[in-house]
Amino acid sequence: MLAYHFPQVSAPGIPVKALDGLPVAGLKDSSGDPDRLLDELAHYAGATYVGSSAVLALAGPLGAAGAILALANIEPEGCVAAFAGDAAAQRGLAGRHLAVRQGGPRALKAVLAGTQGTGPWTRD
């Protein structure tokens, strides 16, 4: 089981100092905050997974365990390259990252419908 730090949805999120006391195997951090990511990687012994495609090129080279991303549904190769430290791949994800972040699941479904031929429907 992973702890889930996503303060935009569940404020205030999980303090880094509290992580070691939780009965979890690791953490998914969807904040997209590079300072927070550095704190986690430096001070939390569990596995850290990023949930924001904005910090992939930082997360992989600094030792994050992996990434769990909505954007990987539409840009899997770009996400893998960015996690490996490819700055050009990270920049290449910017437009779709920002669109999905702003539009949420509806935006993701719309892109998938346009590129993969899937249905654009979402649950409300």
Based on the model shown, name its key terms:
TIM Barrel, four-stranded parallel beta sheet, 124 residues, 4 strands, alpha/beta
Please, what is the average pLDDT? 93
CATH names the topology as TIM Barrel
Task: State the strand order across the main sheet.
Answer: 1-2-3-4
Structural class: alpha/beta
Indicate the CATH architecture. Answer: Alpha-Beta Barrel
Number of strands: 4
Secondary-structure element pattern, one letter each: EHEHEHEHHH
The CATH homologous superfamily: Aldolase class I
Level of helix content?
A: 40-55%
Query: How far is the first residue's CA from the last residue's CA?
Result: 27 Å
Low-confidence stretches: none
Number of domains: 1
Shape call? globular
Largest sheet: 4 strands, parallel
What's the gyration radius in Å?
15 Å
CATH class: Alpha Beta
> What is the number of helices?
6
Percent in strands? 5-15%
How would you characterize the overall build of this protein?
Strand 3, helix 3 and strand 4 form a beta-alpha-beta unit. The protein is built from six helices and four strands. A four-stranded parallel beta sheet has the order 1-2-3-4. It is α/β, with parallel strands linked by helices and 124 residues long. 47% of the residues lie in helices and 11% in strands. Helix 3 packs across helix 4. The chain has one domain: Alpha-Beta Barrel (TIM Barrel). The two termini are 27 Å apart.
